[in-house]
Design goal:
mainly beta; 26 strands; two-stranded antiparallel sheet
């Protein structure tokens, strides 16, 4: 708009100026002018200079190309080779075995033995899993030269739930068990009236329930925590509760890992009576509180755990308490890669002895036990381990251990024969005695993998015991050894075997009925040989056979308590998915 106005203004001014000039010209006289034409005007267009498309070169450097002449000298060569059409070579692939989440096993054998197992697993989600395992093992047959019944039964039920997430993982588990045994270990030198013998009820049954669980956290001071509570009872109204809580805390004090382990342990229970008195019940209750700080140093070749354990132990039944300090030092150093690793340690603990743990080692104990914790002052050990030639693993270790108030199994004394006695009061059960024990031991182990399907393992342990009061370390062998062999003949046939040797042990034979002095008895060493074979019919079904105690030796694992002779068990396993 401004441009249009300016243009209009300029045009108007120009017109005004021309009008004024024209008016002035009209008032003037133009006069006369003479024009001479010399040559008529004839315009022309000159040629423009153009660059030629192919300029001529006149350069002394430029040389002319010379023609190249060549020829082929051909010589014929005779050949009988006839190429064949190429084909891809076939690669034989082994068929991938199917994986099943569940299986059931049934087996039957000598001594009317029955074996049944059921395992099932459910993947609830990507992170959650639930499993159940049921196992039953029983035998009804009698043992040669044993007068009382020797049948047994063991049934276990385990259920577990686990969840593994990014920042937290946890699990819960439940165990229920029922075990039935017989106190059949009568002294063969004792005689019993027939009416008394017929009324001996030698059966004992154990029932146990355990609830446990654990949690592990990432990026938290509480690294992990586990806890269990177990209830144990038997046919004679014995009862026990054992609760244990073990959290582990990580403190960012140094550049290395600093751990603090807590141990909260409560044990309480009761027995109706003692072995020698029907009027004296046994009640026990212990509380142990432990704190174990440790500095953990890790690098390429060295692993070092430097710590100590502080325990406060209290006998709640007798209002007695004490304080304990133990070393907690472990170290390993890689001397030559995986070929040679040196390790050692010095560790101690306040160990709770429970009714459940004792009967798991020797189920023939009487329900009249005097229980107390063991003060393990230290367990010092040094050793070497590693691999040779890639397929031979070895481990040698020397140990010296000092334990105060260690329990030893000892056969209960014979009290005579009476119809009023319980089934364990005929000198056919075991009790506990306590003493201080020093143990010097040497251990060696060798494992050889001949190939991917064959493995051999051998081990041996020698122990030298020194007791404070007892004349011997009762029912502890000085020498034990073992060997195992596993072979996969084909992808369907597997077999193997095991051999166990246990050296001589000592026990005490006593008779309070006639007040004879206790006599120390030596139990013979024994050798137990076992074999197994398994044939997989297809991906789901396999059959097996097992042979135990092949030497058919009714050896005595405990005094006057022989084991079954030659045992054969055969059965099948079926795998499936729900």
């Amino acid at each position: 708009m401004m441009f249009k106005k300016a243009a209009t203004f300029i045009i108007c001014m120009s017109i005004g100026t021309l009008a004024t000039v024209a008016q002035e010209t009209e008032n003037q006289d133009l006069g006369t002018e003479v024009v001479n034409v010399v040559k008529p005007y004839s315009p022309t267009i000159s040629d423009a200079f153009k660059v030629k498309e192919t300029p001529s070169l006149n350069d002394s450097v430029t040389t002319q190309k010379k023609p190249v002449k060549y020829s082929i000298f051909s010589v014929p060569v005779a050949s009988t080779f006839t190429p064949a059409k190429g084909t891809a070579a076939d690669v034989e692939k082994s068929k991938r075995l199917s994986l099943y989440d569940n299986y059931v096993t049934l087996g039957f054998g000598s001594y009317t033995t029955a074996l049944a197992e059921l395992y099932s697993n459910w993947q609830l989600s990507r992170t959650d899993n639930f499993g159940i395992f049921l196992r039953h093992n029983s035998a009804q047959g009698d043992i040669d030269n044993v007068a009382l019944p020797a049948d047994y039964l063991d049934t276990q039920l385990d259920m577990s739930y686990s969840s593994f997430q990014r920042d937290i993982s946890y699990d819960f588990n439940l165990n229920a068990s029922h075990e039935l045994i017989n106190w059949y270990g009568l002294n063969p030198n004792e005689t019993f009236p027939q009416d008394v013998f017929d009324n001996i009820d030698s059966k004992q049954s154990y029932v146990s329930f355990k609830i446990g669980g654990g949690v592990a956290l990432e990026d938290s001071y509480l690294k992990q925590a586990r806890g269990t509570i177990r209830y144990t009872s038997d046919r004679f109204s014995s009862s026990e509760i054992h609760a244990k809580l073990m959290p582990q805390i990580v403190l960012p004090i140094t550049e290395h890992e600093f751990l603090v382990d807590l141990d909260v342990d409560f044990l309480g229970g009761s027995f109706e009576r003692s072995y020698l008195s029907t009027l004296t019940p046994i009640n026990y209750s212990f509380f142990n509180l432990g704190l174990s700080p440790a500095l953990v140093i890790l690098n390429d070749d060295l692993t070092l755990h430097l710590g100590a354990a502080f325990y406060f132990g209290q006998d709640l039944e007798n209002s007695d308490s004490d304080f304990f300090i133990y070393p907690k030092v472990r170290a390993s150093y890689r001397l030559v890669d995986e070929l040679l690793i040196a390790y050692g340690g010095l560790e101690g603990e306040l160990r709770q002895n429970s009714f459940y743990q004792i009967k798991e080692v020797n189920p023939f104990v009487s329900p009249t036990l005097a229980l107390a914790p063991t003060d393990q002052l230290y367990d010092g050990y040094v050793g070497l381990k590693g691999k040779l030639a890639g397929n031979i693993g070895y481990n040698i270790r020397g140990t010296y251990k000092q334990e105060n108030n260690k329990p030893f199994f000892m056969q209960n004394p014979y009290k005579g024969a009476s119809n009023g006695f319980e089934g364990y009061e005929f000198g056919n059960s075991f009790g506990l005695v306590y003493d201080d024990l020093s143990t010097l031991s040497a251990f060696g182990e060798l494992k050889v993998n001949l190939n991917s399907n064959t493995a051999i393992g051998v081990n041996a342990t020698y122990n030298n015991y020194s007791t404070e009061v007892l004349p011997s370390a009762y029912n502890l062998p000085e020498f034990t050894a073992g060997a195992t062999l596993d072979i996969g003949f084909t992808d369907k046939i597997f077999a193997g075997g095991s051999l166990f040797f246990v050296g001589e042990r000592t026990d005490v034979l006593s008779d309070t009925f006639i007040n004879t002095l206790p006599v120390e008895v030596t139990l013979d060493s024994y050798l137990d040989a076992n074999v197994y074979a398994n044939y997989r019919i297809n991906e789901r079904v396999s059959v097996f056979v097992k042979g135990s105690n092949l030497l058919s030796d009714n050896y005595q694992k405990w005094l006057n308590t022989p084991v079954q002779g030659l045992q054969v068990l055969a059965g099948a396993t079926y795998k499936f998915n729900w």
